[in-house]
Amino acid sequence: MGFLIFLLYISSIVSFLLGYAYLNDKAEDLLMWSFTDKLEKVTDKDGYKKQQGTYSIVMGIIFFLVPVSIFTIEKFAINPKFLYGWIVVLAIVSISNAILIRKYFR
Q: Which of 4, 45, 63, 92 has a beta carbon 3.0–4.6 Å from 12's, enabling a disulfide?
């Protein structure tokens, strides 16, 4: 269980760093590497980077709060089935991001 929590904290840090890089125009070539052949299909690159930066920050918050929730559930002997709520939150955030970034492509 400790290794999972460690991985979630590392994922949180990476997500926060990606969000910072997207929102502050740091390392644009590195962040947009997957668009080498589709870069001309992006209609609003700044809007796309802002959306992805916000998504990365939200994912960082989720990855940080899951271990906090695990600790709270273990500490106060709460029903562990409440952790399934994070799956729902993760699905909602991912689906909404997929829908929102479609407007930045032709």
A: 63
Task: Give the bridge partners for 105, in sequence order.
Answer: 42
* Whole-angstrom distance, CA of residue 97 vs CA of residue 85: 18
pLDDT at 44: 85
Give me the amino acid identity at 99: I
pLDDT of residue 49: 86
Distance of CA 19 to the CA centre of its chain: 8
pLDDT tens track for 16-39: 999 999 888 877 767 776 655 666
| Euclidean distance between CA atoms 42 and 68, whole angstroms | 37
For residue 50, report the phi and psi dihedrals to the nearest 5 degrees.
-65, -45
